[in-house]
Fold this sequence. Notes:
The structure holds two protein chains of two kinds.
Chain A: E1 9-13, E2 18-23, E3 31-38, E4 45-50, E5 53-56, E6 61-64, E7 70-75, E8 84-92, E9 106-111
Chain B: E1 5-7, E2 10-13, E3 19-24, E4 31-37, E5 44-50, E6 53-56, E7 65-68, E8 75-79, E9 88-95, E10 106-107, E11 111-115
Parallel strand pairs in B: 2-11
Antiparallel strand pairs in B: 1-3, 3-8, 4-5, 4-9, 5-6, 7-8, 9-10, 9-11
Amino acid sequence: LAKTTQPISMDSYEGQEVNITCSHNNIATNDYITWYQQFPSQGPRFIIQGYKTKVTNEVASLFIPADRKSSTLSLPRVSLSDTAVYYCLVGDLTGTASKLTFGTGTRLQVTL
Amino acid sequence: EAGVAQSPRYKIIEKRQSVAFWCNPISGHATLYWYQQILGQGPKLLIQFQNNGVVDDSQLPKDRFSAERLKGVDSTLKIQPAKLEDSAVYLCASSLDVGYSQETQYFGPGTRLLVL
């Protein structure tokens, strides 16, 4: 199973772009990368998922280099409401969700 | 579309007592998950159901935890007897298909359990 490493915490000011990098050195060919967001007192919420290169949606962008040993979640112009914990997960396309591991995530604090 | 519903939202019990949590997934979702989230940690999967069958319960402490999804819809998770270390938030999630790792999971608000 691919192990992920993320920074424990990050701080940002409102309006800045935030990039959270996740390291997954032993990612396998069949593995996907998924990011979830969790606000206090709520369950995690899916943000974005990708396999390679770049994926963009209305919330974030996900950058994955050619070697796929890391990925970067990019949040454009964060606001106070983006304060949350962000989890990077790596999962096997052919495996069940039971093989996913959330880890401790990155706690993002956005201030004025 | 209604989200994943869980009840109760909060529960306080004494150690050695029993407790049960209920989850109603999003309508039509085949796969249901129960997670345990201890303060400061990420969610840990306890059990995964596909319809009313168990896909994976390898991390469920079966000596005290049990879960069922009898009609393939809602589910209950029980702890008997509870220990102090069971204090956590219990999250239920569901996904549309058979529960492959890349499927989006939709989480409920969780039940916060405190064992005294």
